[in-house]
C-alpha cells in the first residue's frame, strides 16, 4: 500500500455501499475488505481515510446495514454521509456524451482515490465493476446516465482517475443485481483483484464472472479511449493465495 | 406547587418533542413514539366508538380518563403539550410588568362541549372526526411535518451561510457532519399542506391574545371530555376562613374556574394547576380530598346540544355522499398494513406519525389532499414520484397510535402488495425512444425482480434499428413499493406509474380500484 499512499495523504476509499442490504447479499462491498484497506492505508501513514458513497436507498440504512460504516470506523476511517451541498460541477473535456457533471468534492480533492467495487450482475451494463462503481461520487440525477450508458460511464472515468482499483469478488452476486436479496444468487469466490489499470481489473473481473470482456460495451469503449487494456492475457498477473 | 407544575409541564413538553424527534429511522425507541397520542382520552374514546373494538393502543387513554374522575383535569394543567405551549408563548410574548388582565369571559365555554358532542356523535355513526381538534393530535401533526422540517431547514440554511465564509467552511461542514450523524434527517422531504398545519397552530396560539388559555377553555374537546368526567372528582380546591377576599385567585385562574365568591370552584373547568394555591397570600387556599359530589356545570344547554348533534350527523352524512372518482381513488396508495379503506378512514386520526417516520426512510408517505375525498383529508398516502416504500422497512405500522396501520412483521410486509406498477410506453425511454435505460429494474427490490425485460429489435424515431431491452412488470411479483416510479429518470411524469390495483389490506384484503 505504501506504493500508493504516502505519509500525510488524505485517502478516499470508494466502496459500493449503495443498497440497504446485508453483507451476505453481496450487493455492497464486503465490510471486511473495506476495513482491511483502511487499515493498510493507515499503516502506510495516511493522515485521513474517508469512506463514502452516494447511496441508492436511504443513506443511513445503507451505511448501517452494509456493515461498512462500523467496520471502517473501527479501523479509524471517517465514514461521512454525502452532503448534497458538496457536489461541484466540473467540465469533462474529453467527454463525448457528457460535457459536464456534478462530482463530489472530497473525492476530487483527495490525494489518493481507491476504488473498491464489488463484482455483481447488472442488466444495463452487463456487470457493475470498477468503472461503474465511480457513479457513487456523482451528484445529480444519475438515472439520466443509464441510456447511452457505455459512453457516459467512460466520459466520467476520463475525469475521475483512481490510483488503485480493488475488486471485491469474495462474494459475487450472479443474478438479480445490483441489489439481489436472494442468497441463492450469491456465490462465494474468495477473491480480490487489485490493479492500477482499472480497465484490466474490470476485464479480469468479467472473466471471473464468466463473461467475455470484449462483449461489455463500456470496457471496449474504455479501451478505445485509452483508459486501459482489455487484453488480460498480456498482463502480468500475480496470484497470491492467502490461507485463512 | 407552581414549581412542581412547571417542572412537570416542561418535562412533558420536552418528552413530547423528544418523541417527535425520535419518530425516525432507526426506530429503536423503548418508549413508543406515539405515547402522547395514546394518552389522549379523546383518541381512545373515539377509536373505540368508530372501530367498535377495544384496540390495545387505547388503554392508556382510558387510564387517563379514569384518573380524571378522582383527580380532575390534571392532564390539562400538568401534562398536555399544547397547554404548555400556549403558556410558553404567553410567557415570551407578554411583557413582565403588566398586571394580570381581567378574568377571561365564560361566554364561549359551551363551544368545547359542542365540538365534543359533534365528534362523539360522528364517532357513534362510525366516522372519526376528532383530527382537526384534538390538541395532542394537532400538535403532533404540526410538530412532525411542519415545525420539524422548518427547524432543520433553518439550521441547515444557517450552516450553509456559515459555509460561505471562506475560513469557516471547514467548521460548517464539520457541523453538518455532526448533525447528520445522529440528529438530522439526511434528506428532509417537503410535505403537503404544511402551511395549513402551521397556520392552524399559529391561530390557536394567537387566541392567547384574546385571553389566557382561550383554546383550552372554549374549544378543546379533549378538555371538555376530561372536564365532563371530572365533575365527580375527589381532589378539590378548598378555601378556609383566612380568605381575605382579595380576588387574586380568580384573577390569576387561567381557566376562570373560580366563581365570584372566590370560594366555589368549577370542578369541570379547574385543571388543578395550583396557581390559586400559589398566589394566595393568607394561604387560605389549598387542595383537599373530598367525597365525590357532583359540582360545576357543563355549559351546554339543550338547544346547543341538539345543534351540535345535528351538525355532527350532517357532517358525517355529507362526507359520506361526497364524490370521489375512480381515477382519483386509484392514486390512493396506502401504507403497507393499512386496514380496509372504510375502516382505515374511521381509524386514522391524521397525526402524521407514519408520515414523519416514513420521511426518514423511504419517504413515500404524504398527508393526502382530496384524493379520497374530504373524508380522507390528511390521511397518509404514498406519493411514489417523491419517495418509495422501503423494502426493508415496516416502521409506519410501529408508530401508528390507533392500529389504522397494522404492525406487519418485516417478512410479511415485504410480501404485502400496496399497489401495482404500470409502464407508460409513451414515456418510458426504451419503449418510446428505443434506447436502453432500466433504472426501474435496477432498483426493484423484489429479490426475483418484478421488473424484467426482453431484448427486441425496435425501430427508433429516427428510422434506425437497434437491439433494446424493453421492460415489463410481472404482476404477481410487484408489491407496489414504487421505487421504480421514484427513480425513473424521465422528466416530469415518469415512464412508470403506480395504481392501487392488487393492493392488500390488513387483515383481509380489499381493493379500492375494483
Ligand atoms: S413501511 Fe413503507 S410506507 Fe411505511 S414507513 Fe416504511 S417506507 Fe414508509
Ligand atoms: S413497484 Fe416497481 S420497484 Fe416496486 S416491486 Fe413493483 S415493479 Fe418492483
How does this model look, in words?
The complex is a heterodimer of chains A (244) and B (514). In chain A, 27% of the residues lie in helices and 22% in strands. With 244 residues, chain A is α/β, with parallel strands linked by helices. In chain A, the strands form two sheets. In chain A, strands 1, 2, 5, 6, 7, 8 and 9 form a seven-stranded mixed beta sheet that branches. In chain A, strands 3-4 form a two-stranded antiparallel ribbon. In chain A, strand 6 and strand 7 (126-128) form a beta hairpin. Chain B is elongated and about 100 Å long. In chain B, strand 6 (451-459) and strand 7 (465-473) form a beta hairpin. Chain B contains 23 helices and eight strands. With 514 residues, chain B is mainly α. Classes of the chains: A alpha/beta (244), B mainly alpha (514). At the A-B interface, helix 2 of A face helix 9 and helix 22 of B. The complex binds iron/sulfur cluster (2 copies).
Q: What are the salient characteristics of this protein?
A:
heterodimer, A: alpha/beta, seven-stranded mixed β-sheet, two-stranded antiparallel sheet, 9 strands, 27% helix, globular, B: 514 residues, two-stranded antiparallel ribbon, 23 helices, binds iron/sulfur cluster
Number of helices of chain A: 8
Percent in helix of chain B: 40-55%
Which pair of protein chains has the largest interface, and what are the residue counts? A-B, 32 and 38 residues
Strand content of chain B: 5-15%
How would you classify the helix and strand content of chain A by structural class?
alpha/beta
Order of helices and strands of chain A: EHEHHEEHEEEHHEEHH
Q: How are the strands ordered across the major sheet of chain B?
A: 1-2
Mean pLDDT of chain A: 92
What are the segments of chain A in which pLDDT stays under 50 over at least 5 consecutive residues?
Answer: none
Strand content of chain A: 15-25%
Amino acid at each position: 500500500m505504501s506504493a500508493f499512499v504516502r505519509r500525510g495523504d488524505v485517502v478516499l476509499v470508494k466502496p459500493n455501499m449503495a443498497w440497504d442490504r446485508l453483507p451476505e447479499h453481496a450487493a455492497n462491498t464486503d465490510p471486511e475488505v473495506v476495513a482491511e484497506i483502511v487499515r493498510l492505508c493507515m499503516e502506510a501513514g495516511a493522515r485521513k481515510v474517508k469512506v463514502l458513497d452516494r447511496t441508492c436507498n436511504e443513506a443511513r440504512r445503507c451505511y448501517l446495514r452494509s456493515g461498512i460504516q462500523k467496520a471502517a470506523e473501527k479501523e479509524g476511517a471517517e465514514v461521512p454521509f454525502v452532503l448534497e451541498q458538496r457536489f461541484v460541477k466540473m467540465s469533462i473535456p474529453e467527454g463525448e456524451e457528457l460535457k459536464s457533471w456534478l462530482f463530489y468534492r472530497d473525492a476530487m480533492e483527495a490525494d489518493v482515490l481507491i476504488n473498491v467495487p464489488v463484482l455483481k450482475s447488472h442488466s444495463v451494463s452487463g456487470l457493475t465493476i470498477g468503472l461503474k462503481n465511480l457513479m457513487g461520487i456523482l451528484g445529480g440525477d444519475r438515472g439520466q446516465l443509464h441510456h447511452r450508458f457505455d459512453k457516459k460511464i467512460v466520459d466520467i472515468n476520463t475525469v475521475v482517475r483512481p490510483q488503485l482499483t480493488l475488486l471485491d469478488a469474495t462474494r459475487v452476486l450472479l443474478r438479480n443485481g445490483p441489489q439481489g436479496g436472494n442468497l441463492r444468487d450469491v456465490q462465494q469466490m474468495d477473491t480480490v483483484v487489485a490493479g492500477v489499470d482499472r480497465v484490466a481489473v474490470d476485464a479480469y473481473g468479467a472473466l471471473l464472472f464468466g463473461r467475455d470482456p470484449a462483449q461489455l460495451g463500456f470496457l471496449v469503449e474504455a479501451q478505445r479511449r485509452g483508459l486501459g487494456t482489455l487484453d488480460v492475457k498480456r498482463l502480468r498477473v500475480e496470484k497470491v493465495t492467502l490461507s485463512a | 406547587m407552581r414549581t412542581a407544575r412547571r417542572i412537570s409541564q416542561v418535562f412533558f413538553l420536552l418528552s413530547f418533542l423528544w418523541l417527535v424527534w425520535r419518530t425516525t429511522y432507526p426506530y429503536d425507541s423503548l418508549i413508543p413514539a406515539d405515547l402522547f397520542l395514546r394518552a389522549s382520552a379523546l383518541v381512545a374514546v373515539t377509536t373505540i366508538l368508530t372501530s367498535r373494538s377495544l384496540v390495545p393502543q387505547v388503554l392508556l387513554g382510558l387510564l387517563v380518563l379514569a384518573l380524571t374522575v378522582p383527580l380532575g383535569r390534571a392532564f390539562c394543567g400538568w401534562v398536555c403539550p399544547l397547554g404548555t405551549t400556549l403558556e410558553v408563548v404567553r410567557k415570551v410574548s407578554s411583557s413582565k410588568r403588566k398586571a394580570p388582565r381581567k378574568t377571561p369571559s365564560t361566554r364561549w365555554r359551551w363551544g368545547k362541549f359542542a365540538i365534543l358532542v359533534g365528534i362523539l356523535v360522528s364517532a357513534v355513526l362510525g366516522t372519526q372526526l376528532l383530527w382537526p381538534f384534538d390538541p395532542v393530535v394537532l400538535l403532533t401533526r404540526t410538530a412532525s411535518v411542519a415545525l420539524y422540517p422548518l427547524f432543520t431547514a433553518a439550521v441547515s440554511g444557517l450552516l450553509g451561510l456559515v459555509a460561505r465564509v471562506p475560513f469557516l467552511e471547514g467548521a460548517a461542514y464539520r457541523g453538518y457532519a455532526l448533525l447528520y450523524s445522529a440528529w438530522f434527517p439526511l434528506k428532509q422531504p417537503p410535505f403537503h399542506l404544511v402551511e395549513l398545519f402551521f397556520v392552524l397552530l399559529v391561530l390557536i396560539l394567537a387566541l392567547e391574545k384574546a385571553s389566557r388559555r382561550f383554546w383550552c377553555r372554549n374549544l378543546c374537546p379533549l378538555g371538555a371530555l376530561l372536564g365532563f368526567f371530572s365533575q365527580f372528582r375527589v381532589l378539590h380546591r378548598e378555601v378556609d376562613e383566612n380568605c381575605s377576599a382579595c380576588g387574586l385567585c380568580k384573577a390569576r385562574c387561567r381557566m376562570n374556574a373560580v366563581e365570584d365568591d372566590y370560594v366555589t370552584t368549577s370542578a369541570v373547568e379547574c385543571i388543578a394547576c395550583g396557581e390559586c394555591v400559589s398566589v394566595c397570600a393568607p394561604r387560605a387556599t389549598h387542595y383537599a380530598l373530598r367525597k365525590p359530589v357532583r359540582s360545576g356545570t357543563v355549559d351546554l344547554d339543550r338547544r346547543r346540544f341538539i345543534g351540535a348533534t345535528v351538525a355532527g350527523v350532517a357532517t358525517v352524512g355529507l362526507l359520506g355522499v361526497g364524490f370521489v372518482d375512480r381515477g382519483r381513488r386509484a392514486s390512493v396508495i396506502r401504507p403497507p398494513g393499512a386496514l380496509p379503506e372504510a375502516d382505515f378512514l374511521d381509524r386514522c386520526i391524521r397525526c402524521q406519525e407514519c408520515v414523519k417516520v416514513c420521511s426518514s426512510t423511504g419517504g413515500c408517505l404524504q398527508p393526502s389532499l382530496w384524493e379520497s375525498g374530504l373524508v380522507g383529508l390528511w390521511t397518509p398516502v404514498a406519493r411514489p414520484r417523491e419517495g418509495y416504500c422501503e423494502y426493508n422497512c415496516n416502521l409506519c405500522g410501529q408508530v401508528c397510535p390507533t392500529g389504522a396501520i397494522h404492525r406487519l412483521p418485516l417478512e410479511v410486509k415485504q410480501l404485502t402488495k400496496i399497489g401495482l406498477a404500470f409502464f407508460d410506453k409513451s414515456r418510458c425511454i426504451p419503449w418510446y425512444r428505443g434506447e436502453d435505460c432500466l433504472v426501474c429494474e435496477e432498483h426493484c427490490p423484489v429479490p426475483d425482480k418484478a421488473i424484467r425485460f426482453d431484448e427486441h429489435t425496435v425501430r427508433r424515431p429516427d428510422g434506425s434499428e437497434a437491439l433494446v431491452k424493453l421492460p415489463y412488470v410481472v404482476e404477481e411479483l410487484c408489491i407496489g413499493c414504487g421505487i421504480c416510479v421514484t427513480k425513473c429518470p424521465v422528466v416530469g411524469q415518469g415512464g412508470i406509474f403506480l395504481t392501487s390495483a392488487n393492493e392488500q389490506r390488513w387483515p383481509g384484503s380489499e381493493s379500492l380500484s375494483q
